[in-house]
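User: I want to check something. If I give you two sequences, will you return the structure for each one separately, not as a complex?

Assistant: Yes, each is folded on its own. Here is the first sequence with its structure:
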Amino acid sequence: MKKIVILCFMVCSILFLALFSGCGVYDKIDLEKASKEIATLKTRVLDLTKIKEVIEKDSPNFGTLEDIEFDHLSINSEYILKESEYLFRQEKTEVNSIPLTSYIIVKPAEDKKELLEDQIELYYKGLLEQYSEKEEANEETKEHLKNVMKKEFEGYLIYILSNDNENVWKKIEENAHSLLFENTKEAKMEDFGIRSNDAKEFKAVVSNQSSDVNFYLIVRPKNGKADNIKKAMDQYMKDLDKKWSTYLPDEYERLKNHMDTEVGSYLIYIVSKDNPLVLKTIKDAVVKGD
């Protein structure tokens, strides 16, 4: 019997060590390190909204552009990855006129890449043919319509027909991944309704744009004060929900997918385009005990 007891103790000890050895203890988060690292984080997928903003802002490379649905141009929407966003922007024209500038950024559905390419290229070929049939057609414009740039980038097909394709492509490359916390400012405890005597440490940033809801908060409560901070944050999130539920759908969806968790004795709240990446960065800033 004594041997059985000893054996059970040894097995339990081994399991305990296996579970907890090397896991580390969340003693303290280096808030300055965390904030500096978070400030450099970028989206891990293409930010099409940012790309659109950058390549069209004050740009002489395109005419006045408008959104176009693929099915309006006989391009099969089934060839497009349903889960992905896409951009198809074409120059506005008068009736019977040919759009001279446009761009397409789209991710093909599985095994549909070549079919999608064929249809997009047929669209651009059709523009050239339509223009060539016009009495006023000239060689310079024909050459322009032939000069469609095609690129493949992180699983996306990109077509550019502009006055300076290389310049547009450079802007896309440089701005494909936007900062997670762009246009933000440091926040104070009272901004969240947290009382200063409830927290030992605090670090947060909020958006300084009225059209953006991104923020993160890292707070270490004083002993016995965690519930006070949680109640304050519950109310803060309810207020945000009330504001954004009838405002911008994309921002509201991001808010609904917010993360609130704990790292050791710290309370963490994150609203961003990549909450897991932000949390990982915070954890990487933990000062481990000996």
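And separately, the second sequence with its own structure:
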Amino acid sequence: MALQFDTSLEPHYGIAERLSPRIARLLAPNPGPFTFRGTGVHIVGAGDRVAVIDPGPDLPEHVAALKRALDGRSVSHILITHTHKDHSPAAQPLKEWSGAKTYGFGPHAETNDVEEGGDRLFVPDIRVADGDEIAGEDFSIACVFTPGHTSNHMCYALAGEKALFTGDHVMGWSTSVIAPPDGNMGDYLRSLEKLIARDDAILYPTHGSPIAPPAPFLRALVTHRRMREGQIAACLAQGDDTAPVLVARLYAGLAPMLVKAAELTVLAHLEHMMEDGKVTRDGARYRPIVKAP
């Protein structure tokens, strides 16, 4: 399967849209080059007590819409996939309003501020690890650790629906930005392989439309990253030796606001290629390792 993105999502801000009997999505009004149509806040549960996954940015109009969407129900769990400012800041006002505890792998690491920037204020009330189970009123959610996009990225699997909430690890509208030092391409690829080995029927990213079936799309993401590393290797062989030069060659016509993110992702690829013994570095310059025949 060739990598194909779905950009058809129509934004309906302030309205919780039903995606399945136990899943609804409220879109935050924060569209942009890294958030697509906005942050999709997922509300999980068909009963009176629900979980909220990635409550989104701390925008007054969005927080008010989230409270309306909950429609008198109580919140038992607030789950955070990772600590970017478009995902976790609304956890604090939601926690104060609902009394629910927050769950996540851990606080934000010290790293580059790309995309929407890091939320350094968030610290989960309850730290979760790979394989942990979170039990709600009418749902059970398993934690699936997927470092790569960030070092603290956690996906959440809803039992009974074979549904996986993938945060920014997998997005249907675009590839994920992998920004060192916190983002790591090797971890990201290993996390993709981990998801390929699962039997999920559908993925719910925080940005963009659901992805079904997941496996072909996940394999296409891996192929895309391997292809990009092949392109980088070819450019290095021709003498292109720094990340800015490689971005200029590989991403011709890229919008200026996206150049920094592209440079960091290329650096992530170069670090992975060094890990694989394919590339060496001298300061900011990279060159291929040519092995003797």
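Because they were folded independently, the notes below concern the second chain alone. The chain has two domains: 16-222, 224-288. The mean pLDDT is 94.
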